Amino acid sequence: MAPIPALAAPGQTNSFRRVSIAEVGTVRLEVEQPGLENEIRIRVTDFAAHNWQKTNVTCQIFRLGDDRKESLIGNFALKQDRPGSDNYSGAFTWGQFFTHGEVAKVVYKSNGVKLPISTWYPFYYH
User: DSSP string covering 95-125, please?
Assistant: First the structure.
């Protein structure tokens, strides 16, 4: 599934908000860069994780090189937003800076779908 860029919902103050989204069945993965920071926010909605009473879920974060080869940055845990919720989230900051135009790939595997879902996010600093 290809990432879907989205703008902020009406009424939100940041009209330049960009979110990359992948959705399969009851699983939704969202990645965004808040402002001009060297950080990505990751949100997952996953009924299966909630159903299995998970208080956190894990995703993998990759850096895509100019040659489009992936290198694993690491595994990142997202915490359940509140007890009983289907929503998990976290903010990831890597020890190195992402450069303008560099692409991060986020992969999430749910017990509720057969294959992992992923989305890509290009960093912008202007």
Answer: SSPPPTT-EEEEEE--TTSSS-EEEEEE---
Q: pTM for the whole thing?
A: 0.79
Q: What is the pLDDT of residues 72-115, one digit of tens each?
A: 988 999 999 999 899 999 988 766 666 777 788 999 999 889 99
Structure confidence at residue 92 (pLDDT): 82
Cα R_g (the chain), whole angstroms? 14
Angle made by CA atoms 120, 124, 126, in degrees to the nearest 5: 165
**20 closest CA partner among 108, 105, 97:** 105
Burial of 109 (0-12, 13-18, 19+ CB in 10 A): middle
- Nearest to residue 89, comparing CAs of 123, 53, 44? 44
**Domains parsed from the chain with CATH numbers:** 4-8+18-122 (2.60.40)
